[in-house]
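Pasting as-is:
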Amino acid sequence: MSQRFKDIDYIGVVLWLFRTAIVVVVLWGTISKLFLEQGNAYTTIDWIDFLIAGLSQGSLYALIALGYTLVYGVLFMINFAHGEFFMSGTMTATIFVALPLSSSGFLDANPILGMLIIIIVAMLVSVGVALLTERVAYRPLRRAPRLVPLITAIGASFFWQYFFRGLYGSTLIPFPELQVLVGKWTVFGIEILKTRAVVMVASVIMLIGLYIFIMRTKTGTAIRAVAEDKDIAALMGIDVDRTISITFATGAAMAGAAGILYGMVFRQVHFFMGFVPGIKAFTAAVLGGIGSIPGAALGGLFLGLIEAVGPPLFLEGLGIPGAHQLKDVIAFTMLVLVLIFRPQGIVGERLAEKKA
């Protein structure tokens, strides 16, 4: 993983973004002309709202994608149960902490303290589920072929989905609304929903904190060493199993926090809520360059923006009905295009022959 952070092909990234920008500008001009001819063009305010919504959604994808990229960087496996880590902490914290604090009036009287308590509980539950999954399902398969833990991860995903369905039920659970976050803030003349602004700020803080943790702490150094070579790291005195557990716990903690931010925006939680965001976050990790923390952040933001701007930009101008419901088509089409033209992702690493 250390090489993934240090050997970023910045020239390739800039060239790829430049080519993408040219394509977007050309398509934007073409579709805008169609809008004008049809007389249904969006206003500048509408496009700003699309961009803000995309950045907010992309921030959530980035936080969840970190769990995929951390685990892949260390174990070279895709943890498809990560979406359930996201779901488990959110549902538990909502039922046992958020709703009681809201009904008692504590959450509105002390919104910052209340939200911190809810987020901490969600992170702890997500970490607990992740550590249990790693210890029971993944650790015994440490030396198995890569396909075996991949299938196990899919099985663990379904297990946790239906475990929490049986535990909490299958109905939608409302996430409490904070009165202090009702309405909009005006920033540089632009109105932004308070919940979306909080999501973006909190996501940036957590992303920076995680990057500092991985790059500047002793534990982060151990994680990067295990990612580079487990056997040599063990010879250097690093507890490999403990380090891998910390990696799972770190990714799950970020997912738990993202789950509460998700609840603040969409105002409901349920046992299946981790599946689609989990798949989208995996897509974001691949888009950015799986195994890279900056790549996960950039891929999440890129995917969120494409989902928000794509339907009105590329589909509605072509007269496709219900274009806003086809954002998944845009997102996964972008994934296919990136895999074809830049398979290493936006922030791709230069692989040595022995790793390729």
